[in-house]
Amino acid sequence: MKIFQFRRKTLESDIELKINFKGKGIFKIKTFIFFFDHIISQFFNYSLIDCFLRVFSDLKIDNHHSIEDTGICLGKIFNFFNFNRYNSFFLCMDETFVLITIDICNRFYYFDNIIYYDYDFILMKEFFLSFSKNLNCCIHIYIINFINKHHLIECIFKSFGSLFYKAKKINKILSTKGYI
């Protein structure tokens, strides 16, 4: 078992992260943002990646730095594993239906088709922007249908976890250049 560790300490946050990519989806998460703990645990559960995540942040101000900096740390640590380049996953959960695609190509891009941006959606977007910038990948999130915002965000993170579960399967670089 190989465990990767990453620590990021700034004036805004202090994050400690330990990852076992070939795990069973076992996690211990403490960000002090209970909804974020819930949805990020869905990611690790569905990806079968073991995770220890501890986040201290300036929560007196808001949740932004905790969530953004967690995305930064996860993106950086995910660089240590050789994932399959192209991956996509559809997920239907209750009334919610989403598609997530990723290209781990050493180029950064993020897209979602969310029209209604409230604070929760902005924070979710910040997480995925930070993750994609630091893994240096392209992520597209397409929301096909939803009614309940909680179900939508949970469905996105479950789909994202399922996508990375698939990405661990074929460790092969697909490029006519021979490298990414």
UniProtKB/TrEMBL annotation:
Pathway: Amino-acid biosynthesis; L-histidine biosynthesis; L-histidine from 5-phospho-alpha-D-ribose 1-diphosphate: step 6/9. Pfam families: IGPD. GO terms for molecular function: imidazoleglycerol-phosphate dehydratase activity. Transmembrane segments: none annotated. Gene3D superfamilies: Imidazole glycerol phosphate dehydratase, domain 1. The keyword Ribosomal protein does not apply. Keywords: Amino-acid biosynthesis, Histidine biosynthesis, Lyase. One of its GO terms (biological process) is L-histidine biosynthetic process. InterPro entries: IGPD_sf, ImidazoleglycerolP_deHydtase, ImidazoleglycerP_deHydtase_CS, Ribosomal_Su5_D2-typ_SF. This is Imidazoleglycerol-phosphate dehydratase. It comes from Candidatus Carsonella ruddii CS isolate Thao2000. The lineage of its organism: Bacteria, Pseudomonadati, Pseudomonadota, Gammaproteobacteria, Oceanospirillales.
